[in-house]
Give the backbone structure.
Amino acid sequence: MSEERKSLNFIEQIIEEDLANGMAKNDLRFRFPPEPNGYLHIGHTKAIGISFGLGEYYNAPVNLRFDDTNPAKEEQEYVDAIKEDVAWLGYKWDKELFSSDYFQQLYDWAVKLIKEGKAYVDSQSSEAMAEQKGTPTQPGVDGPFRNRSIEENLDLFERMKNGEFDEGEHILRAKINMQHPNMLMRDPIMYRILKKHHHRTENDWCIYPMYDWTHGESDYIEQISHSLCSLEFKPHRELYDWFLDQVVDPDKLRPKQREFARLNLSYTIMSKRKLLKLVEDGVVNGWDDPRMPTISGLRRRGYTPAAIRKFVETVGVAKRDNVIDVSLLEFCIREDLNKTARRVMAVLNPVKVVITNYPEDKEEWLDTENNQEDESAGFRKVPFTRELYIEKSDFKEEASNKFFRLKLGGEVRLKSAYIIKAESVVKNAQGEVTEIHCTYSEDTSKKVKGTLHWVSIAHAIKAVVREYDRLFMDEAPDSHQDKDFMEFINPNSLKTIEAFVEPSLKKAKIGERFQFQRLGYFNVDNDSTANNLVFNKTVGLRDSWAKQKPKPTQNTNPQQQRPQKKAIDVIQQLGKKYTNLPEAKQLKVKSEILELANNVTYEELAPLFNTAVKKVGTRIAVALVLGVLLKHGHEKNEEVQAFITTALEDKNALLVAEAQAISKG
């Protein structure tokens, strides 16, 4: 958790009240209790962050406990993956434990309940049990085996344990109240027969405890002070406490269950069962496919622990479920990589440039910065020759004055190199441009609006680039009652292309992250080798998805159509309230402003340089837009420099931070 804590969330308030009421700080102990039946996903990061964050804040131990009570779905592979993910996120657990460690104790306690007349063996079919359990509005009725004698129940339960019965033939139920308004209290199942191999206890047991019976008792055995879980377990709290009532020693600490809202993300599936289906059906290439919302998938895609932790902290702890826009997660990784990723040049869709007045045999190695956001990152050398690759989209034979890239008769600056002018083109039989013939000028002080990235053809290294889009085309793919979530799979979620990258990347290591200038953030994939570089696109420099979202159907009646607001006007509105927003909303608004900035001209922005000092939010918005314009190649003229200087002298830390960012650019 960040040291800059603005206020206590409701869970921290509960803990503070407990401490104020006499609980010793040394008694605080938390746990993260995953079931090892799949890989952890982004939704789990909230539970991880809450428990381990509290541990860090209160200097209290946190257990990593695997609730491994269902051998039919659990595997050692999942245990290993979960440990790797939690450690990668930067968290350290105190003890590594398993619910299976407590199987004997749980069995002994179950026998105790039978002897006290609080549990019995039921031999009904599952259909009959469901019928006699009632409904939320209709009370249940006692089953035919509810009043078996204690002796018969003890005998049957031991024979269940000894493997004398088939699966489904008998179960053990708690004897509570079949008319209870909470259906979970209507004689819940404690044990079922499962003749499956367990990844730890192997074939020692053929009866396994149910989650509700196991979970609270495991918390009690471990002396967990606060058992934190998601909201769907709130109805289970009454049962959690009832089970504890049967075994708790008044001289020992009693765990307290409290619930928080789950982390739900747009365009994302959070069900491990459904994620497993994606793997088994070959829709993705395993649990760590970079399109998957698993932590291992995000890691392979290039996400950082810092970005994920920042995302979880920004979302915060709530009491009500809500859906977080996935663009906030993407914004967090952009912000992190912008500070840390080395800038390099790569061309994904190349067209050849020939500089006709540059000597054929000449080769220069030019200095270029590694990261303008980090002064300590230093410089590197890039080779420059007569023949280069640039992006096809960076050239047009004819274009308007708003096209700040290369066009016939126009000039652009090559990043860290010279200014070139397009003189003529060579086309193939289909009329496509295959070569752009240019001349260059050694006068690099000349002012031109556009700056392009490039690679020297003679030195370029071929690389495979995997460009990812969202796996689902619907914001809530599993929320449609009449449709299967698989119907919303994006058929274009992966595009593999052959690109050319600068030679400094020849020794790039698996997991290294880079900004391909003007293109986005990429990292080296696990499949990469010295002779075959493979890069995954982590995220673009801007949120391009917002542009692709289908717009609401417009009324075509001209009299009823409203004129669309200009981007600069929307930005001004967003800026007005910026400084009054909570951090999560600030990040979302910042993302919106950066996206809108792509539709703003310098002429529209310049009048706002003189915004009154007290209108800090608007000035922050201006700084954000200016940063985008400068990245697109606009020069830092006197007007721009004056705005930056004034902003750097302001008292508002947010404005100063944005001014520092663009002054380094």
Observations:
- The domain at 102-209 is CATH 3.90.800.10 (Glutamyl-tRNA Synthetase; domain 3).
- Confidence is low (pLDDT under 50) at residues 1-5, 550-563.
- The first helix runs from residue 10 to 20.
